[in-house]
Amino acid sequence: MVESKDKIRSGRSGSTSSSKDDKKDQAKRKLSDSGSTADKKMKIDRSSTKSEKSTEKPVIGKLARQKAAEAKAAEEKSQTKKKAPKKEKDNKFPKFQENKLLAEEKMTLEKISESYSVIVKTIKDHMIDITDLKNAKTEDTDSLYQTRTEAVIAISTLKQLNRFAQMLTKESRDETKAILGRSDGVNLKLQNLQYQTHHLKSEIDACLGFNSLHKEMVMVPEETFKKAAPQDIVDKAVSCDHEMVKARLGWELAQREELKSAVEEVKAERSKIENDASRVRSNLNDLRPQLSTMLEAANGVRTILGLDGTVGAMGTAREVLTDPLLKIYKAGRALSQTRSDVKVLMEGDHKEAIELKAKGFEDGEIEQEEEEEENQSKRSRKKSSKDKKDKSTKGWYPVFITWKIGNKPIKFKQNIYNKLIFAESSESSATPELSCLFNDDTGRQTSNDKSDAVKTSFGRSYKWAEQIATGEAPSNEETYSEYLEKIVEAINSRFKHSELVDEHVKSLKDKKLPFHLSELMMTGVITKFEESDIYESPRGLKPYEDGKIFKVSIQHIDEKKMYAYISISPNYPHNAPRISVFTENDKNAANDVQLQYIEEHCNLRLPIRLRAKDKMIEAISRQIGTLMMQPISAKVTTRNRFHPVQLL
Amino acid sequence: MIEPEVLNAYRSVFAQTFSRNGTTLYIGDNLGKITIYNVNRWAKTQEFQTQLESIQLIVEYKNILIAGGIGGLVTLLVSEDGTISKGKRITSESYNTALVLEEHDVLIGGGPRGILYTIDLNVFHIIKEDTDSHKDSIQCSSLSEERGMFCTASEDGTVHIWDMKSQEIIRTFLPFEKEELNRPERGRFISCCSMIGDWLVCGGGPRVGLWHVRSGELANILDIEQDTPLSMFSSPERIFIGGSRSVVYQFQRNGSKISTVDASSQFVYSIQKSCKGHMLVSGSTRTIDIYKNNYKAQELSV
């Protein structure tokens, strides 16, 4: 800047005046400048060579060229001479090291800041002086140059300060970085420690909250333990609760191991006994045909000797029962030997049975005889029929079998007309208790008019009863004894579920759902729950055969009423009740989309979900709950406007 | 196990679709089953249980069948003899309606949430969810391939016409705002729509109207008295409308009613026409009525 200003200044001066003083001033200025910078030196040099050239311009020819060459060579020599001492100078002065300088100067940022203020002030002062000198247009150029030189020196110092400041900043930064590194390391260690603390705390919590399995174990009470366990174990355990628990567990384990070994011994003994029993049974079975032959022979001897009857209970049964009833009796006796809840009885008029058998009941002669009688006159047929009924207890074989399962007696009777076996536990034939024990087995399969005539008085001709009377299993997949077990289980289950139905119906009659469904937001209440004789379903759904039918009335919060017929299956809750919904304004599942969906949900989707969750016992509660939570809408018109709701 | 009697009592048929060659009929019901019939013999060839709770739509794309409804959207592989086997589930979002734009390899559909989804059929991924176009359940959609348009109808009362190429709305119809169609006591919802060429038929809460799409004008009112339309089918000659009174109405484009034929179902949910000219009507029962020249020729059942 100074140089350019000078140039400008020199240019201007050159243009304004061409006096010799000015030229001298310019030369002096150039000389003074040459000491400040190398560039200026070069300029001065160039100016000098120019001046030399200008002076040598008029010399033309070989001599002049030689002189110029010599001068050039001399100049080069002088330059090489100049370079050599520079190297010596370098050797004299060791390599400049800023850091050392900084250390020597003992510079701090505060010092730099102070020096900076001073230098800036100095520069300002010099600038003011220069300006004043220039404005004064004094001829004292030396003082101007002096001031300017001082200003330039101050600027150099400023630059030095700047350099120091940068170095100090760098040092500070490095230091900060090092400190930060150390700090990070410490932080990391702290975090690791914190994590370890947290982990240990959670471990401690886990340990404290550990739900040991021993809490669920039923152990010998502490008092019993103290009495039964050896004294040294008890003494050790008294010190604290933990030791006590450990001791009790140890004692329990020892006791259980003892018991286990005892059980194994007993099992082995049992197995041995069973093997013996099996062997004995096998021997007995071998004896059976021999005994049978002997019995027949004995009975023959008894007949010859004029003594009536056969030997033993089975002998009596064989004497009075028909073949199907005998097989049912035998099956009952077999069951009673294996199950404590089954007992078998043979009831009825033995004498009449023997008479009937003697007349050839089992060979079909009675039926034939009756058919012949039917062809006779009305009077004689009536008389004959009356006699027959008197003799056969109104169409039944005089002796019947009773299986007592639990407290419920199940009677097996044989119809004298069609020879079918009828069974039932209920006193009233209108309310059979064993209908549909197995798939659709309503006991109404026969189309025999005669059986229809008698079936109103007692029971049904169930397939399972007929199957028992055959003495064989229905398929090769199971044995006869397994089939009998299955029937007894099914009957037991039926009696149990029948009690459940009664419970649920009682609850509903009290206008309460059998199961409390707090998750359903119900907007209606049950106003009536009563038995019904009719069941109407516009969707074509039929009520369960031999099931119970009820009608439920529900009043919603908006005063609208909804009704539903409910058919409860004899296999409730295995089969979900069938609901048929309608409203007071004759809307039903066939003419209203929403009611269709409600019915579909109750009868189809709900049972599928309940069965999957093994909650069929809640079926009727959830079905009626669904009716209670659904508002009646008259505006539902499209299939999609009523979105399915998750009711379970 | 649910007794067959109960299953049959509550079976409704929501979707019927013919295969491209017209030889196979796919029927979707409310139990999530697809029943397949051979059209030449009208004989049941397969009954397939899908993963869906209920099937509302069946569309065909290349050699796969896409079924949608309550429980999502699933693909089913179709063999050469027309039988189907299990594919994969595309989404679990419920769908009421969908259509395939074969040229663009995309499926466009929507359901109870009112969101219109675009699914890339090359990868079976949802590539776009349009939540703004409809404010309520999307009920029905229909394609007019010859004009490069399709329409979607919603519970909110709007029917949007879309450009197939850009998939942008080009026109919106609001039938409930038309005085001639408005039935305020029923609401503004549109339950079904159908497009043929430049013509759109739609109805629901409002009466059924025939609209000219380009001009946006109501051309005719198709009078089905107090009934509510549930399904529609348009052919170049006829417009068929199924309602909630176990009948199917037939109209000409000039608005004149040609006939009213009885259906087995109280609510008619689907009307289709076979390439042989049979009209198939299904609804809230398991029976599908087949009509030939307006006379019931046969009944199928699922």
From TrEMBL, chain A:
Record localization: Nucleus
GO cellular component: THO complex part of transcription export complex
Main location class: nucleus
Molecular function in Gene Ontology: mRNA binding
Region of interest (Disordered), residue spans: 1-95, 358-392
Pfam families assigned to the protein according to its UniProt record, in alphabetical order: FmiP_Thoc5 (PF09766)
Sequence intervals crossing the membrane: none
Keywords annotated in UniProt: Coiled coil, Nucleus
Residue stretches of biased makeup (Basic and acidic residues): 19-56, 67-79
GO biological process: mRNA export from nucleus
Coiled-coil parts of chain: 256-283
InterPro entries in UniProt: THO_Thoc5
Acidic residues composition-biased segments: 363-374
Entry similarity comment: Belongs to the THOC5 family.
Protein name: Uncharacterized protein
UniProt source species: Oikopleura dioica (Tunicate)
TrEMBL record, chain B:
PROSITE patterns named among the record's database cross-references: WD_REPEATS_2 (PS50082), WD_REPEATS_REGION (PS50294)
Matches recorded under InterPro entries: THOC6, WD40/YVTN_repeat-like_dom_sf, WD40_repeat_dom_sf, WD40_rpt
Keyword Transmembrane: no
Keywords per UniProt: WD repeat
Listed GO biological process terms: mRNA export from nucleus
Record's GO cellular component terms: THO complex; transcription export complex
Highest taxon, organism lineage: Eukaryota
PANTHER family in the record: THO COMPLEX SUBUNIT 6 HOMOLOG
UniProt name for this protein: Uncharacterized protein
UniProt source species: Oikopleura dioica (Tunicate)
Organism classification: Eukaryota, Metazoa, Chordata, Tunicata, Appendicularia
